Amino acid sequence: MTGEHEVEAAEQWFRRRGLPAVVRGRPARLLLRTTPAVVFVAAWQVLTAVLSAVDGQTDAEFDRLMESDAFALGYTALLVGLVVLPAVGSWLTARWVRRKLVDRGGTVPSSVLAAGFVLVVPVADGIIEGDSIPLGLVTQLAILAGLFAAAFAGVGSIVGWALRAAFRQTQLLGELTSRALPLLLLFTVFGFFTTEIWQVGAALPRPRMWLVAGLFAVVAVVFLLAMLKDEVSRLTQSRTVPVGLDKLRGTPLAAFTADGERVPLTKLERANMILVLVLTQVLQTLVLAALVFVFFVVFGIIAVQHSVIKAWVGRDPTSGTLFGIQLPIPQELLQVSLFIAAFSGLYFAASTVTDAKYRSAFFDPLADHLAVSLVARDRYLARLAQA
Predict the structure, then answer these.
(1) φ and ψ at 152, to 5 degrees?
(2) Hey, where are the domains in the chain?
(3) How far is it, in rounded angstroms, from Cα 377 to Cα 106?
(4) Which of 78, 243, 261, 374 has a CA 20 to 30 Å removed from the CA of 210?
(5) How far apart, in whole angstroms, are the C-alpha atoms of residue 248 and residue 236?
(6) What stretches of 193-205 show up as alpha helix (H) in DSSP?
(7) Which of 94, 107, 103 is nearest to 39 (CA)?
(8) What mean pLDDT value characterizes the chain?
């Protein structure tokens, strides 16, 4: 491998680890880098358009259709597809993009996908939902421009790493939810059966419930920012060369034998590292909150009859919707489950960086990731200085 290719492989390694700010020089091949995001957004738009067309009936008509096993199965498949297909399509495309970045190919397919994203999606929306095609074209162009700007800033690298890190941690969430969070579960289960929480949930419109969840999220992010800034400062003040060198084996940085002095982080690099930590923690929290939400929805369907909901809220339960999609679940149950999930997420976010039991499982691997990246950065910058 030539020196130029070694440097390119190292830069791709940093991007894959969510640290594009470490890479010197301007990013190239933005069209190819935006392709996974284009696939994700296009698949999401098409599936939501189909679901919106299916949801066009009144509540009574929708409930009648859901009595049909075939319709219920097809509708459930669409809901699952909305969650799975965009993510899987984007992941497979990202793998293809990584190969093409090394081979310096893929320009034609990525151009075709971008053109299809701008042209095909508005036409599909016009046919399925009757939307304005010219307005749709302008919207798609604006989204594509936003994706280009995000790729230029390295947002895709950061989000991609955070998603992969959060996914790797999901295998621990079940164990921590059942063993490390017993007090939280005990509190939330008993709180679930209080009349007041059902009355508040039933009285709040969905936009206000999202505001409540958003308030919890803001508090969690502010707390994480304050804590993780100090963590990054501690990491940059200590050299972990033995650990770093051991974990650089088999990476493009292993060929860089020069160990340079620790160059102080730029403001952009420091912000990049803090953002990687915060975003990964936020995604882990979202995964846990989603599991808590699903648990209480299923628990409520099994344990709480409609007559009990009526006694608690003073009226018959109404048909539920989530993100504009009708569900055969009472709206009141969805509201209460959202509130409990938001509270659980706030508790979990605070615990991951303060409680030793949570920290060792969720935060320490991220700190090790940054420690190794700092050692690799020293080698990378020393190599560039020699060129």
Answers:
(1) -65, -35
(2) 28-153, 157-387
(3) 29
(4) 78
(5) 18
(6) 195-203
(7) 94
(8) 80
Query: Which among 38, 51, 56 is positioned nearest to 121, based on CA atoms?
Result: 38
For the record, the structure tokens of 68 come out as: 């049909």
The answer to whether 331 and 317 are in contact (CB under 8 A) is: yes
Q: Chain-centre distance of CA 50, in angstroms?
A: 23
Assign 176 a pLDDT band (cuts: 50, 70, 90). Answer: low
3-state secondary structure of 264: coil
The DSSP symbol for 177 reads I
Of 214, 122, 153, give the one whose Cα is nearest residue 18.
153
Report the greatest alpha carbon distance in the chain.
Answer: 76
pLDDT at position 242: 47
DSSP code, position 320: E
CB atoms inside a 10 Å sphere around CB 385: 10
Q: Which residue is listed with tokens 């749709």?
A: 136
* Cα separation, 319 vs 146, whole angstroms: 36
183 vs 174: CA distance, rounded Å: 15
Total H helices, total E strands in the chain: 17, 2
Query: What is the DSSP-derived secondary structure letter of residue 251?
Result: S
**Contact call for residues 300 and 336 (beta carbons, < 8 A):** yes
- Residue 348 tokens read as 């979990």
Backbone angles phi, psi at 328, to 5 degrees: -80, 50
**In the Cβ-directed half-sphere of 77, how many Cα atoms lie within 13 Å?**
6
Higher pLDDT, 160 or 220: 220
Q: Residue 319 in 3-state DSSP?
A: strand
pLDDT, tens only, 258-312: 655 677 888 888 888 888 888 888 887 888 888 889 889 999 999 889 898 999 9
Q: Is 333 helix (H, G, I), strand (E, B) or coil?
A: helix
Instruction: Cite the DSSP H helix spans in 130-181.
Output: 133-153, 155-175
Exposed/middle/buried for residue 210 (C-beta within 10 Å: 0-12, 13-18, 19+): middle
* CA–CA dist 202, 198 (Å, integer): 6
Q: Cβ(245)–Cβ(375) under 8 Å? A: yes
Residues whose CB is less than 8 angstroms from the CB of residue 212 and which lie 6 or more positions away in sequence, other chains included: 204, 339, 342
- Cβ–Cβ under 8 Å, residues 350 and 232: no
Distance CA 252, CA 78 (A): 42
